[in-house]
Amino acid sequence: MNSGISMIVLLVVFFFIFYFIAIRPQSKQRRQHQEMLDMLKKGDEVLTVGGIHGTVAGITENWIELEVAKRTRIRFIKRAIASVQSVEEDEEEEEYYEDEVVEDEVIDEFDELDDEDADEDSEE
Questions:
Q1: pLDDT recorded at residue 45
Q2: Of 100 and 60, which is predicted with more confidence?
C-alpha cells in the first residue's frame, strides 16, 4: 500500500517537472510567434524559416506574399515567417551596400580608363 502511494506521488512529481521544462516554454514561444505574425504589416522586412529575406507585399489570413527582389514576389504560408528584421539590422545592410556601391564605382572608373587606353592603342 505504501509503495503504491509513493509511486503515484513520484509520477505526479515527474509530470510537473516535465510540464515546467518542456510544455510551458514551448507554449509560451508558440504564443509569441503567433503575436508576431498577427502584428505583421505591409512593408515589414522578414526572414523565413528557409532563410529567404523579403519585404511583405501582401497579407491574407493564412498566406503572406514577400517581395524578394524588384518585381519578384514569392507566396508563403504565414507560419513560414521566422522573424521580423529590426531597423538596426537594416541600417547595417545599407552601410554594407553603400560600401559595395563605392567599390563598384571605383571598378567602373578603372574599366573606363582601360577602355580609353585600348582606344588609344588601337588608334596608333
A1: 94
A2: 60
